Amino acid sequence: MSAFPEAQLSHVGYYVRDLDKMVAFYKRVFGLVVTDQGVSTRPGSPTMAFLSRNPDEHHQIALATGRGAEAPTTVNQISFRVAGLEDVRTWHLRLAGLDVGPVDARNHGNAWSLYFLDPEGNRLEIYTPSEWYVSQPFGQTFDPRKSARELREETAAMVARDPTHCPAGEWSAKVAAALV
């Protein structure tokens, strides 16, 4: 059996009720820009908007009309990775000023995450990985107002109590070996 060709997740697309409201939210909160928009040739002819923050990616999010007024979200989460724990802390402050509603700060041991909802109830995540692995699901709330040093110390103590913990690099090496 040959190895799979490289494939990386690059974007997500989903149906929305109010395209203009959703585009405005993603532009305001994440600084995305509209890279294209138009009407699809698919059945139902949804109007679509494509948004990105990466000039090398035509779109990172594709939004299409067609979600019914009473249709619940089927999105578990849409996650945005940031460079480090200081960025998570900065996003926490930014989100408080953007009136996005409640923000749930979760320490998963292997990552620090901020969860909140977009205007149509889709759960969004801002996260950064930690230097540890611990079996998932795992987590507890954390206070993003604490210093990065304090949060790392708390996380190190928290994961040390779990028998599945190990350095993230060790876990990554196991996954890499399984992908060969």
Characteristic key phrases:
Signal recognition particle alu RNA binding heterodimer, srp9/1; alpha+beta; four-stranded mixed beta sheet; 180 residues; five-stranded mixed beta sheet; 2 domains
Give me the secondary-structure topology.
Blueprint: E1 12-16, H1 19-30, E2 33-39, E3 47-52, E4 61-65, E5 78-81, H2 85-97, E6 104-107, E7 111-117, E8 123-129, E9 132-133, E10 140-141, H3 148-160, E11 166-167, H4 168-178
Parallel strand pairs: 1-4, 5-8
Antiparallel strand pairs: 2-3, 3-4, 6-7, 6-10, 7-8, 9-11
Written description of the protein model:
By secondary structure, this protein is of the alpha+beta class. It has 2 domains: 54 residues, Signal recognition particle alu RNA binding heterodimer, srp9/1 (2-Layer Sandwich), CATH 3.30.720; 101 residues, Signal recognition particle alu RNA binding heterodimer, srp9/1 (2-Layer Sandwich). It has 4 helices and 11 strands. The strands form 3 sheets. It has a 5-stranded mixed beta sheet with strand order 5-8-7-6-10, covered by helices on one side. A 4-stranded mixed beta sheet has the order 1-4-3-2, with helices on one face. Strands 9-11 form a two-stranded antiparallel sheet. A hairpin with a 3-residue loop joins strand 6 and strand 7. The chain is globular, with a radius of gyration of 19 Å.
